[in-house]
């Protein structure tokens, strides 16, 4: 429906909310499109293909307060189109391919409803994120928005020229901030702000509560000094400095002095963050409740103990720290018994003792201990016998190589509200573990990628009818039998299925999936060399819900596949056809206008896929070794699993080179 009146089929006269989103493929809206629906107060047009909005399209919508236009194809938007909506308070325009040939004055005057007034009591949120084309923009109109509370300038790179006068990016942002004293939320991430912006923040933004300077590399410790000496930012409760590696210990001292009420800090991707920096922050910030410290490898137990002494945390996240030991976890769990979310991935010094400390928490609902190779069944026993077991909703045990079926049995029996579980690359799991999970009625999502699971385990898993998402990538011993039998027949509510690199699967598996699991929205089957056009044809039979499909590396597919998808999957939104030698560029391009995300190449599949251009395996796949009950000390499993996948497909004697 390239050109249409969007409410053509609607007969409800007293309509107040119209939702025309989720890919209805509307391409243009003409004058008077909403005539007869003047009572609308909310209009949702996101995720369509709208590239044309005529000036009179919203005429008469005087009561409309919310308008969502994100994720469309709008290149321009005239101010006249929005002037007829004096009650408009919430407008979203992000993720459109803007090609602005006007000034920011025109854009912001569009937001000023009614005309000739600033946003005043009408506007409270403006989002200009990802804007890179405003090279002739004026900030004055934004600065007149005295009641503006939320402003997103993330990734605004080229705000610099106005009325023939050249401004630095810092000056442009400062002019906006000077006129917006009521700002509560400000996102400047990935932009070119420098010390001048921080100076203006300390002067003007007296009520600011949320500030993101993530990946802003041009300000220095001197800029942070303004936060300590000025009047602004003293009420800041959330601060994101991820990627700001230029900040020294002195800078963190200024932050602690100027923002003592901080509750949430995000300091990810800071390899320069040291114990001294954290100690300075902890010396004055005693209200911390949420901390994120991903990729901060130099922090030791001293820093975490300092945090434990002053903070009462509800959320704590650390990733990639090899110096953090059980001492830190013991201190954190004792000082913050109200912890609800713990992310502790890739902490190789964590042992069962840490899990014993976590087992004392009473309200834990999320736990990620992936890549913690020293955690064993005993640690899971401590956790499942604790007071949080019945409240836990998400558990990630990926690459915990010592976890076996006994631990999964305890999880299935004790974690009665568990919704999401990942046991990917847990080499000691067998079919018996999945049999226990079949009785976990609350389970919605399961990841068993890279496990030594065979058809018996998959068939047993089919006994869980509530399962919505299954990721079984690189389960090399799963065959069509496992899919065809009890699994698909009972898991009829499945919405997401990933069988990437399950090289034994063929068209028959997709036939069963298409026949029984009619609610599938996402299907990923890259690296399945036996799949042919027939598998895709099965998918298109009654497959009205399929929105995402990945067939990369399915070398037997031909030009018939795009044709089947074009006619049989009207809701398809994303298609990935990389390494599909049999699909020509011309045939693939015919599918491109029908989807939002499209990718295709007819290159040969990389060698680590484990098969040649004809779909023949380079090495036969043997049965998995019998899983032992005991083991010797192992090296931590590498986070990059490409090596292990290649060896699994090509044989143990294959020499891997990165």
UniProtKB/TrEMBL annotation:
**Coiled-coil regions in this chain?**
none
Query: Is Mitochondrion tagged as a keyword?
Result: no
Task: Give a yes or no for keyword Repeat in this entry.
Answer: yes
Cross-referenced InterPro entries: FBXL15_LRR (IPR057207), Leu-rich_rpt (IPR001611), Leu-rich_rpt_Cys-con_subtyp (IPR006553), Leu-rich_rpt_typical-subtyp (IPR003591), LRR_dom_sf (IPR032675)
Q: Which domain of life is it from?
A: Eukaryota
Q: Which UniProt keywords apply?
A: Leucine-rich repeat, Repeat
A GO BP entry is: SCF-dependent proteasomal ubiquitin-dependent protein catabolic process
Pfam families this protein is in?
DUF7885, LRR_8
Q: What SUPFAM superfamilies does the database record attribute to this sequence?
A: L domain-like, RNI-like
Q: Which GO terms describe its cellular component?
A: SCF ubiquitin ligase complex
| F-box/LRR-repeat protein 15-like leucin rich repeat domain ranges (all copies) | 140-285, 388-566
Q: Spell out the PANTHER family in the cross-references.
A: F-BOX AND LEUCINE-RICH REPEAT PROTEIN 13, PARTNER OF PAIRED, ISOFORM B-RELATED
What is the protein named? Answer: Dynein regulatory complex subunit 6-like
* Organism, scientific name: Salvelinus namaycush (Lake trout)
């Amino acid at each position: 429906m390239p050109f249409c009146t969007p409410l053509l089929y609607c007969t409800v006269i007293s309509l107040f909310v119209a939702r025309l989103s989720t890919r209805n493929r509307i391409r243009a809206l003409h004058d008077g499109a909403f005539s007869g629906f003047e009572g609308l107060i909310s209009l949702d047009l996101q995720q369509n293909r709208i590239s044309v909005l005529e000036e009179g399209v919203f005429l008469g919508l005087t009561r409309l307060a919310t308008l969502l236009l994100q994720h469309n194809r709008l290149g321009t938007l005239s101010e006249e189109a929005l002037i007829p909506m004096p009650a408009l308070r919430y407008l979203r325009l992000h993720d459109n391919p803007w090609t602005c040939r006007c000034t920011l004055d025109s854009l912001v005057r569009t937001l000023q409803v009614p005309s000739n007034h600033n946003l005043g009591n009408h506007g409270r949120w403006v989002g200009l994120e990802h804007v890179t084309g405003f090279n002739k923009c004026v900030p004055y109109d934004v600065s007149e928005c005295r009641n503006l509370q939320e402003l997103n300038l993330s990734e605004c790179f080229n705000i610099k020229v106005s009325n023939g006068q050249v401004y630095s990016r810092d000056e442009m942002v400062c002019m906006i901030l000077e006129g917006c004293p009521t700002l509560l939320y400000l996102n400047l991430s990935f932009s070119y702000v420098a010390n001048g912006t921080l100076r203006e923040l300390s002067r003007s933004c007296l009520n600011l509560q949320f500030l993101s300077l993530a990946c802003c590399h041009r300000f220095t410790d001197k800029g942070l000094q303004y936060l300590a000496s000025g009047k602004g930012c003293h009420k800041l409760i959330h601060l994101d400095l991820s990627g700001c590696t230029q900040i020294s210990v002195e800078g963190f001292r200024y932050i602690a002095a100027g923002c003592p009420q901080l509750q949430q800090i995000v300091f990810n991707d800071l390899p320069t963050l040291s114990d001294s920096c954290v100690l300075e922050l902890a010396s004055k910030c005693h209200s911390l409740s949420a901390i994120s410290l991903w990729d901060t490898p130099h922090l030791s137990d001293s820093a975490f103990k300092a945090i434990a002494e002053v903070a009462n945390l509800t959320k704590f996240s650390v990733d990639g720290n090899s110096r953090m030991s059980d001492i830190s976890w013991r201190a954190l769990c004792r000082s913050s018994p109200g912890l609800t979310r713990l992310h502790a991935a890739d902490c190789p010094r964590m042992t069962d003792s840490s899990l014993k400390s976590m087992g004392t928490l009473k309200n834990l609902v999320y736990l990620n201990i992936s890549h913690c190779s020293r955690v064993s069944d005993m640690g899971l026993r401590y956790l499942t016998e604790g007071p949080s077991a019945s409240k836990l909703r998400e558990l990630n045990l990926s690459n915990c190589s010592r976890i076996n079926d006994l631990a999964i049995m305890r999880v299935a029996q004790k974690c009665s509200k568990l919704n999401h579980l990942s046991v990917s690359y847990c080499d000691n799991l067998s079919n018996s573990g999945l049999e226990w999970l079949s009785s976990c009625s609350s389970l919605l999502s399961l990841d068993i990628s890279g496990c030594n699971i065979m058809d018996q385990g998959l068939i047993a898993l089919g006994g869980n009818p509530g399962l919505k998402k299954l990721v079984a990538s690189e389960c090399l011993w799963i065959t069509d039998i496992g899919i065809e039998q009890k699994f698909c027949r009972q898991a009829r509510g499945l919405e997401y299925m990933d069988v990437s690199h399950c090289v034994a699967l063929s068209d028959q598996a997709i036939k069963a999936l298409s026949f029984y699991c009619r609610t599938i929205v996402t299907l990923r089957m890259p690296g399945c060399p036996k799949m042919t056009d027939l598998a895709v044809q099965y998918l298109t039979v009654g497959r009205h819900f399929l929105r995402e499909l990945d067939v990369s590396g399915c070398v037997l597919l031909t030009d018939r596949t795009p044709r089947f998808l074009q006619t049989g999957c009207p809701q398809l939104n994303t298609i990935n056809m990389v390494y599909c030698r049999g699909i020509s560029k011309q045939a693939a391009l015919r599918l491109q206008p029908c989807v939002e995300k499209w990718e295709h190449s007819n290159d040969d599949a990389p060698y680590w896929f484990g098969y040649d251009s004809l779909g023949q395996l380079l090495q036969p796949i043997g049965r998995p070794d019998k899983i032992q009950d005991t083991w010797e000390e192992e090296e931590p499993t590498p986070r990059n699993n490409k090596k292990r996948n290649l060896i699994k497909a090509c044989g143990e004697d294959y020499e891997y080179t990165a």
